[in-house]
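Notes continue from the previous slide.

Worked example: a multi-chain complex. Inputs as given:
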Amino acid sequence: MSFIAIVYCFLLLVAWAIGIARYSRLSTAFKILSWSFPVVFLCNIISPFWVDRFGNNAPILHVESLTDYVFFSATFYYLLKSKMTKRIIIISVVIVVVFVVINAIYWQGFYKKFPTNVYFLTQPLLAIFSLLLFKEMLMYPLKINPVKQSAFWYNTAILFYATTMFFYLGLSNYFPEHNLHDHFFYYFWYLIFYVFDILLAVAILTDNQKITLENA
Amino acid sequence: MPDESIRTLILATAVLFAGISGFIIYFVVLYRNRQLKNKQEQAALQATFQQELLRTQIEMQDQTLDYISGEIHDNITQVLSFVKLSLAMPKNTGESEKQQKIKESRELISQVITDLRDLSKSLSYDHITSLGLSKTIEIEVERINKSGLIDIAFIPEGAPYSLGSQPELVLFRIFQEAVNNVLKHSGAKHFMVRLQYQPDLFNLTLEDDGSGFSDLQAGKNGSGLKNIINRAALIGGSATINSSPGKGCSIIVTLNPFKQQFYSGEPNHQNRFS
């Protein structure tokens, strides 16, 4: 396991610890989100061993792509107010689950390929949910500064993650086609996740069910 | 890696990050502006609410003073004058007749005392806060029924709960306005007041069997009706007025008791306006 990966795992543990320490004060959305960290942490711990044994970590990424989407969309489900959007989130989770299974069986083999198809489906969905939540925040503004609101940080994190991952996946075609070295790729991947997890940790750190209700 | 590709990549990454950052900054600015606008709107709403409340209180005081003045002139002064005349007996009045007149005068004075006590209750609208809307309307209904001007049926349904002192004051004023309209214009013989206290809904229904009015008439002479609708809206409720010529009039004021927290005037709720 590389140093950069170890730092990333440490970051995940810190974010999880913040979630656990503030668990009773968190709203349902962020209680759910705080459990995404140990799952991602576990995937990252297993990943190198899987690479050593089977040559790649494709199965881990297939599972992670699904769990990521389920956790993030569930968080959106509890943050958004619109019943229509909530229904769309539930339907999207069912569609993504079916898609992940079909993709792993027919298009991007579970043991062989990185599930780019899944990310191409889930990242735009997350970006849309994020924009919808930004819109709702503007429609029903709280009395407190937006930078003190967990929803703002979570939304920023997801928007950043969804757009940069989409960008990253786009480049993943460009690099092999032009025979370019993948060092940049590797660091860029971790840079996305460092920023993303720091933003999520800030969201969990700022979340307070009581204050949100008082300022509604 | 070719230099040009690196440059393109760095540029694309920088543009992406700048785009996201720009969006977030724009959102924060927009959000702060929206917060400011909301704050100003709430302040304006509170000012209107306080102003309307003050107007309601003044109207109630005016009406109360009219009523007291009428009572003193038509009832108390008359009775006391009668007592005075009654006690001014000629010297040759017999002992038993004197005793009879004194007894009658004492009864009349007792009646005056009772009437004055009732009047003193009407002097302050604070009793709405202490007695609650249901009891206050009940007392008012008894008073009007005693006057014989109209027959009012009071029908409370469900366990009464407080809607907050200010909304209850406004509701009581709506009731008074409706009674005034009925007495002045409708020529109704019967009037019905129904208070429905449901867990998530409060209804005040006011119905009369008077002459009623058309939409056109309501538009021409309906400042009182407009007041009712505006006041119901001001406390977060709605008023529906139905009437047609010859078929009386029905006013239904509906409120959501949870929404009344905004209008209750309790210190902890007033923070919502700050």
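Summary box: The longest strand of chain B covers residues 190-198. Residues 265-274 of chain B have pLDDT under 50 and may be disordered.
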